[in-house]
Amino acid sequence: MFGSYLAGHPAIAGDHCRRVAHLGHHYIVCSFDPAAEELRLYHADASGKPYGSFQAMLDDIEPGGTNILFAMNAGMYHADLSAVGLYVEGGVEQQQISTGRGWGNFHLLPNGVFYLAMGKAGVVETRAYLDAGIKPRFATQSGPMLVIDGKIHPRFLPHSDSLNVRNGVGVDANGIVHAVISEDPIRFYDFALLFRDVLGCDNALFLDGSISSLYAPEINRHDRLFPVGPIFAVVAPVAK
């Protein structure tokens, strides 16, 4: 469905994932329709032990007849792998939403929430999420927001020297979810421009930096370098 070619980079063309170049940087963009595909969040097994890796999630879930088509780390976590902010799985709130100030990217306000509910997905600033009274099936909070109602986060600098590999998620005007991971170190500002100007996302959320990880078997990628907390996954029943 998607495909592109960049000089010096091999093409990626999968059912959901493609390579995108913007402002001299390279990204892998994986796009999903929540009305047609099963999007979920995972964090721990039935005993409550956090997965910590894509492989542990695969080993636990796939033998039960669920095929993992895609996965990406989906929010910041504490040393014990518990979510820093809101985390909802299967309609059950496992971690409360955070509205306080603090240190680090999560608290570079405004931060926001990525949620899934009734075949739809959304990214919304934290206060707006609370005001809307959303009752999600799945939700994860992270920060900072990259794009807020079509505007770049006010704290981002176009010429910042803070460069890092980053991943994030946005939802476009057609309700399509775009999960993105950079292939080289980028600024927050450039990452936000990609979501707004290339992917058409009026709202997009940063998920994490140096631990950014992707599982996408359609493009033969399975990152294993870092522990992960909450995981965004796309699943399908195993064909019989």
How would you portray this structure in words?
The protein has about 240 residues and is mostly beta strands. About 10% of the residues lie in helices and about 40% in strands. The chain is built from three helices and 19 strands. It has helices at about 55-60, 125-130, 190-200; strands at about 5, 10, 15-20, 25-30, 40, 65-75, 85-90, 90-95, 110-115, 120-125, 140, 145-150, 150, 165-170, 175-180, 205-210, 215, 220, 230-235. The strands form four sheets. It has a seven-stranded antiparallel sheet, covered by helices on one side. It is globular and about 50 Å long. It starts with a strand and ends with a strand. Residues about 1-10 have low confidence and may be disordered.
Strand content: 35-45%
How many strands, which pairing sense, and closed or not: the largest β-sheet?
A: 7 strands, antiparallel
Number of strands: 19
Proportion of helical residues: 10-25%
Cα separation of the termini = 25 Å
Low-confidence stretches: 1-10
- Please, what is the average pLDDT? 93
Structural class: mainly beta
Run of helices and strands:
EEEEEHEEEEEHEEEEEHEEEE
Which strand order does the major sheet show? 3-4-15-14-16-12-13
How big is the Rg?
17 Å
Quaternary state of the chains: single chain
Shape: globular
Number of helices: 3
